[in-house]
Specification:
About 5% of the residues have low confidence. By secondary structure, the protein is an all-alpha fold. It has four helices and no strands. It is rod-shaped, with a radius of gyration of 36 Å. The chain has two domains: about 70 residues, no CATH class; about 40 residues. It is a multi-pass membrane protein. Keywords: Membrane, Transmembrane, Transmembrane helix. It is found in: Membrane.
Length: about 160
């Protein structure tokens, strides 16, 4: 979803800043790596076409950019082009919202097709019941004329 954290944007304490503010991941990483600890996980970093991280030191906050995430807390006026700043819940919600109309249309179409199949089935069953009740009166061809309706035979439909 090209996101980082939970909710919000660049000035939210629940998006990218969530990792520094309230996560066990950040506390454990700081203990293990000291001052070189990343401020956000690699999953928050934008990637190139070859799947490598775009600008890893800048994204992780190891290079401090004036008033920009992730090394500085919100509110911010700077930006970091290597870091996803939108929260993942927000990104997922907008993705689902964009596709919900299509999913609803497919679901309604499926129901309409199933109902049409049931109605057509009832119509055919009704025709079969009528044919069984009246017998051969509604057959298309006279059985005495033969199947092929050869030369000189009268294989015209019976009209009653």
């Amino acid at each position: 979803f090209s996101c980082c954290g939970a909710y919000g944007g660049v000035n939210s304490t629940r998006s990218w800043y969530l990792y520094q503010n309230a996560s066990a991941w950040y506390q454990a990483t700081t203990v293990l790596e000291g001052n070189k600890a990343p401020f956000v996980p690699l999953s928050c970093c934008k990637r190139r076409a070859d799947s490598s991280v775009q600008d890893q030191p800048r994204c992780l906050g190891n290079v401090n950019v004036t008033n920009a995430p992730p090394a500085n807390p919100p509110p911010l006026t700077g930006s970091n082009a290597a870091l996803f700043i939108e929260g993942c819940f927000d990104a997922m919600q907008s993705s689902v919202s964009a596709r919900i109309l299509v999913a609803g249309a497919v679901g309604i179409s499926y129901v309409v097709l199933m109902l049409a199949g049931v109605i057509i089935g009832f119509i055919f069953a009704r025709f079969l019941a009528v044919a069984d009740y009246y017998g051969s009166k509604y057959t298309a061809f006279d059985s005495s004329a033969g199947a092929a309706g050869g030369a000189g035979s009268s294989s015209s439909p019976i009209v009653t």
